[in-house]
Amino acid sequence: MVILLPIYDAYKYLEVWHDAIFSDYKDFNDEIAKQYKAFNKENKDLEDRKKNLDAIVKRLQNPPDEYQKTYNTVIELYEVYDEFYRLATNPSGSYQSYSNDVHEVDSEFLKIFNKLEILIPEKENQLKK
């Protein structure tokens, strides 16, 4: 699922950072810089996907009343996705603060995604009536 790419990238930075810190012979700043360089092309792809997602979200404005709750949840999910995008494209802070941010945003993303999954079948059932 394309939307999950920033989540993968954020966790990859976390892994590289962790491994460098707990290695006797690696400088974590160098390792993060190497990973950033490795993600350089992917970050361009992420940026393009983010622009496409931004355009899709803008087109969702003004939903019918019966879809308002689902729309609000999609917007919540988009806001959390935006946080993951920021974490994936601009890792900063200490290892501990970055780790906390990644785990917190991941937890929030899953919570809202699960909420959305519950709302969508509800709407499918209404369409069948």
Topology, number of strands: 0
Low-confidence stretches are none
Average pLDDT level: 82
Broad structural category: mainly alpha
| Radius of gyration over all CA atoms, rounded | 18 Å
Largest sheet: none
Q: Share of helix among residues?
A: over 70%
Distance between the termini: 30 Å
Oligomer: single chain
Q: Top keywords for this entry?
A:
129 residues; mainly alpha; elongated
Blueprint (SSEs and pairs):
Elements: H1 5-21, H2 28-38, H3 40-59, H4 68-89, H5 95-128
Helix pairs in contact: 1-2, 1-4, 1-5, 3-4, 4-5
Write a structural description.
The protein is mainly α. It has one domain. 81% of the residues lie in helices and 0% in strands. It has helices at 5-21, 28-38, 40-59, 68-89, 95-128. The protein is elongated. The model has no long low-confidence stretch (mean pLDDT 82).
How would you sum up this structure in a few lines?
Residues 29-56 form a coiled coil. The chain is mainly α and 129 residues long. 81% of the residues lie in helices and 0% in strands.
